[in-house]
Structure formats: C-alpha cells, structure tokens
Amino acid sequence: MPAYIYNKMVEEATKSGVTLTKFTEKASSWLIQKYAQINKEDVRPVRFINEAERKKKIVRIGRLYMFLYDPKGKKELPYYDRFPLVFPVDFETDGFYGLNMHYLPPILRAKLYDSLLELQTKSELKGISAIELTRVRVTYTLLKKAARFRWFKPCFKHYLYKQVRSPFIIVPQEEWNMTMFLPSEQFRKSTKEKVWQESRSKI
After folding, report:
1. 38-89, pLDDT tens digit by residue?
2. Under 8 Å between Cβ of 97 and 140
C-alpha cells in the first residue's frame, strides 16, 4: 500500500493552520516547501538534467520523464508547457500520449498521483536498475473508466517526437514524490494560475 501523498499533506497542513480545500498561492507554496522537508532533498530542477545516465532516446509506458518541448502550432495554442513532467500512457506512430502532471494544481496533482501509485509495479530482475523497471501500469481505458482517475483529463496530452527539444530524462522512482511538487513547469502564453483554473473547469 503506497503512502498517500494527499492525505499526508492535508494532515500536516491542518496542523499548520493552512487550508487546502481549494487552491491558493499560499497553499501551493506550503505544499512545495513541505514536501521538500519531508524528503530532505534539494529542490533545484537542474539536478535532473545534468545526469547523463538518465537520458534516453525513447520513452516507455508508465515511467516518469522530463524533457523540453516545442509544440507544433504553438501560435494557435492558448498555452503550453515548455518543460513537461509526463507519465506516457500510449504510443502513436509520430509520438505518444501522456499525463503531464504540471497541468494540475498541487492539490489535485497529489490526488491523481496517489491513484497512479496504486498501479505501481517493480521487477526484481538482477542486473537491471530500478530506474528501468519501476513504472505505473496505466492505460487510457483505465483512466476513463475509474472514478479515482477523474483528474486526468486536463493532463492528457499528445507529444510529437519531432517537437521534442532535449533527450528524455527518466526520473527514478525514489524521486517521484519530490519531483511531483517542484515548481518546474514552464507555461508559455499564460500563467500557471490561469492554466490550473481552466484545468479545474475540465474535471
């Protein structure tokens, strides 16, 4: 049974007098700072993009990746994330579909992440790193059918390989929790607050 991130944060927030029933700037700041304390880690995103051994040319379903992206037709888009944090869900010939967790405010992101952790699987094969083996067994069909995944809709995106502007960077499972709440989103043409407000309206 995974440690439920959302429940842990609500409990800690209540003790600290922070209301998390709806997203506020104060609550967002508290979530990021608190989770950094829980993990006792340095929260600088740059630590992920300087490690050559994590860079891969292809993605695999259910693993967590970071990469630079320049979307096709960006002039017509109302907004987009330049630095996605994605669990790939399905493949297309020109790319893949995935859940970009940045499109949810921290409260809802924690809820969706908790649900995804229930699908986590690990292998025990010798000679293969945990980075390569840990994933979540997620499919689009499952996301649509199960109520506990209802927050996925604004996160579900189509990424084209030819628009990717960096290697794919695998985030190791032991760093998923911290990475979820790093302020690493790079939204263009809109603020993250407006993006998150619209995301709420789609759920």
Report:
1. 444 443 433 333 344 344 457 888 899 988 899 999 999 999 999 999 999 9
2. yes
This prediction has a pTM of 0.72
Are 114 and 165 within 8 A, CB to CB? no
Structural domain containing residue 190? 5-202
- CA 87 to chain centroid, in Å, comes to 7
What is the four-CA torsion angle of 169, 173, 174, 178, rounded to 10 degrees?
A: 70
| Residue 42: count of CB within 10 angstroms of its CB | 9
Q: Which residues pair with 65 in a beta bridge?
A: 86, 170
Q: Give the 3-state secondary structure of residue 169.
A: strand
The total number of structural domains in the chain stands at 1
pLDDT in tens, 153-175: 999 999 999 999 888 888 888 77
Give the chain's end-to-end CA distance (angstroms, integer). Answer: 26
